[in-house]
Amino acid sequence: MNRSADTDVSGLNTLSGFAQLVDATVLARAQRGDMQAFATLYARFGQPCYGLALRLTGNVTQAEDLVQEVFLKLIDTIRSYRGEAPFGAWLKRMTANAAIDQLRKNRRLSDADPEAMFANLDAGETSPAQRLDAISLLQRLPPRARAVVVLHELEGYTHTEIAKLFGQSESYSKSILARGLQRLHAVAAAPPTET
Predict the structure, then answer these.
(1) 135-156 tens-digit pLDDT
(2) Which structural domains are found in the chain, ordered by start?
(3) Burial 67-81, CB ≥16 within 10 A → b, else e
(4) 3-state SS of the chain: helix, strand, coil percent to 5?
(5) Pick from 55, 57, 47: which is nearest to 18 by CA?
(6) What is the pTM of this model?
(7) pLDDT tens-place string over residues 27-47
């Protein structure tokens, strides 16, 4: 039996998230408007889209809405998918763009000044459990900083790619990342507060 590189000895898919491979026939059917093919794509990529949207927005409801928005947009745009990049990478980009657009729409990214962005944070009290929970650590960052940290550190985007997404310079992306990571380290290293 000939096994592909993305399956283990049991025949199960070992790739996860956006790295999952998609059968060319499923993509071709989806490009022709076959809703069953879209259901297959949703079943495979809905959770990775949700996870990325949640990490970028920090809000469960917004993340759920973004997944719906991305898959509705996918119905209209899948015909433009040319296969130059893996489908998962293409969908990941769509999800990241939709999350950033949502943050812009909510005016949560309006503060483009890195100094002002971090100056408005209060230290707040954190429990030891909160300091160790990555999601609650990310929640302590301003939305733009959280998005830059997630895209660069977790999703592997380059500063050039992030700069293009935000319409800023590479140095801006680097500055936001450095300040965001510094903030995360400070919160994680802070001694427990008395309640």
Answers:
(1) 777 888 888 899 999 999 888 8
(2) 17-106 (1.10.1740.10), 111-195 (1.10.10.10)
(3) bebbbeebeeebeeb
(4) 65, 0, 30
(5) 47
(6) 0.69
(7) 999 999 999 999 999 999 999
